[in-house]
C-alpha cells in the first residue's frame, strides 16, 4: 500500500509539473511572463508558509545557514530558475521548455562537482556528463543559419534557467540548513517573487489588464497545483526515498509537457527534440550508474 501511495505521489508531481508548462503558455496571454511568475510565487509562498505554520513549529529562519539557503533558493532557484525560465519559454515553445527540464540534473551534478568535493565525478561519469550535454545541444541547435532571433534568445534564457535551478539546489545543500525543506521553500518562493517582480518593473513589462478567466485559472493552477501542492508531495517523496530516485521525475515531466504542448497548441516535436532527451537520459544513467544499480537492487528486495 505504501509503495502504491508513493507511486501515485510520484506520477502526480510529474503531471502537475508537466501540465504546468502548458498552463504557463496559457497564462502568457493574460500576463507578462515575469509578472505571471511573480504572482505565482506570491500565492504559492503564502500557501506553503501557511501549511508550514500548521504542520511544524519551525516556520522561520533561525541561523545564518537558514538565511543563506533561503536567499540562494529565492535568487537562483526561484528568480533565475523559474522567472527567467518563463521569459525563455515565452520566446520559444512549451515543448522545448519541457524538454530542457531534463538537463537540470546534469547541470546540478556539474555544479556539485565544483562546490561539493564529495560529489565530484569519476572519469566515466564525466563521459556521461558530456553525452548528456551533447543531447542538450541537439535540442537547442538552430535548424537554420544561426542568427540572433527571439527564439535563439529564448533558448539561451532556458539555459540560464537550468543553471539557476541547479545552482539553487546545490547552494541549499551546501548551506546545510536546519530548516525543513518545505519551510525554506516557502520563504524562498516569497523572496523570489519579490525579486521577479522587481525584474518585471525594471524590464518595463506592460500589463494591459486584458486578464481572462483562463488566464486566472492558469495562474491559480501554477500557484496551487504546480507549486504548492506539488512541492509538498515532492518533499514527502524525498523524506521517504533517495534523491536519485525522486530526481527521475524530471525525466517524466518533459514527456508530459511535450505531448501536452503538441495536443493543445499544435507545437511541433522535431526529430532533434525526440532524439535529444533520450541522449540526456543515457548520459545521466552513466553518471549515476552506481546509485541507480543500488536503487534497483533495493526495490527488488522483498520487504
Describe the structure concisely.
With 303 residues, the chain is mostly helical. 80% of the residues lie in helices and 0% in strands. It has one domain.
Strands, helices and their partners?
Elements: H1 2-27, H2 33-55, H3 64-91, H4 94-100, H5 104-115, H6 123-140, H7 150-175, H8 181-202, H9 213-240, H10 243-247, H11 249-265, H12 271-287, H13 289-300
Helix pairs in contact: 1-4, 1-9, 1-11, 2-3, 2-8, 2-9, 3-7, 3-8, 4-11, 5-7, 6-12
Q: Can you characterise this structure?
A:
There is one protein chain. With 303 residues, the protein is mainly alpha-helical. The protein has one domain. The chain contains 13 helices and no strands. Helix 3 (64-91) crosses helix 8. It starts with a helix and ends with a helix. The mean pLDDT is 78.
Overall outline: globular
State the helicity in percent bands: over 70%
Task: Give the termini distance in whole angstroms.
Answer: 12 Å
Percentage of residues in strands: under 5%
Structural class: mainly alpha
Which runs of at least 5 residues are low in confidence (pLDDT < 50)? none
The count of helical stretches stands at: 13
> What is the total number of structural domains?
1
Helix and strand succession? HHHHHHHHHHHHH
Q: What is the total tally of β strands? A: 0
Radius of gyration: 19 Å
- Mean pLDDT across all residues, rounded? 78
Features:
single chain; mainly alpha; 303 residues; globular
Amino acid at each position: 500500500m505504501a509503495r502504491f501511495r508513493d507511486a501515485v505521489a510520484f506520477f502526480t508531481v510529474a503531471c502537475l509539473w508537466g501540465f504546468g508548462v502548458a498552463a504557463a503558455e496559457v497564462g502568457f496571454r493574460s500576463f507578462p511572463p515575469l509578472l505571471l511568475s511573480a504572482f505565482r510565487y506570491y500565492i504559492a509562498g503564502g500557501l506553503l508558509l501557511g501549511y508550514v505554520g500548521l504542520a511544524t513549529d519551525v516556520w522561520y529562519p533561525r541561523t545564518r545557514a537558514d538565511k543563506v539557503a533561503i536567499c540562494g533558493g529565492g535568487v537562483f532557484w526561484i528568480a533565475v530558475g523559474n522567472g527567467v525560465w518563463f521569459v525563455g519559454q515565452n520566446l520559444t515553445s512549451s515543448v522545448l521548455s519541457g524538454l530542457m527540464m531534463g538537463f537540470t540534473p546534469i547541470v546540478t551534478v556539474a555544479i556539485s562537482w565544483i562546490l561539493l568535493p564529495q560529489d565530484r565525478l569519476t572519469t566515466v561519469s564525466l563521459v556521461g556528463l558530456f553525452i548528456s550535454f551533447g543531447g542538450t545541444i541537439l535540442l537547442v541547435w538552430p535548424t537554420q543559419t544561426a542568427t540572433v532571433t527571439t527564439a535563439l534568445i529564448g533558448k539561451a534564457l532556458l539555459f540560464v534557467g537550468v543553471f539557476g535551478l541547479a545552482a539553487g539546489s546545490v547552494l541549499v545543500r551546501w548551506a546545510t540548513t536546519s530548516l525543513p525543506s518545505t519551510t525554506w521553500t516557502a520563504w524562498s518562493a516569497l523572496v523570489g517573487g519579490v525579486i521577479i517582480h522587481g525584474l518585471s518593473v525594471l524590464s518595463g513589462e506592460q500589463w494591459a489588464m486584458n486578464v481572462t478567466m483562463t488566464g486566472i485559472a492558469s495562474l491559480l493552477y501554477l500557484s496551487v497545483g504546480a507549486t504548492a501542492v506539488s512541492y509538498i508531495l515532492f518533499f514527502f517523496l524525498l523524506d521517504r526515498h533517495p534523491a536519485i530516485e525522486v530526481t527521475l521525475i524530471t525525466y517524466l515531466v518533459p514527456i508530459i509537457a511535450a505531448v501536452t504542448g503538441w495536443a493543445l497548441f499544435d507545437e511541433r516535436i522535431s526529430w532533434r527534440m525526440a532524439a535529444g532527451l533520450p541522449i540526456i537520459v543515457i548520459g545521466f544513467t552513466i553518471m549515476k550508474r552506481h546509485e541507480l544499480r543500488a536503487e534497483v537492487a533495493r526495490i527488488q528486495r522483498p520487504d
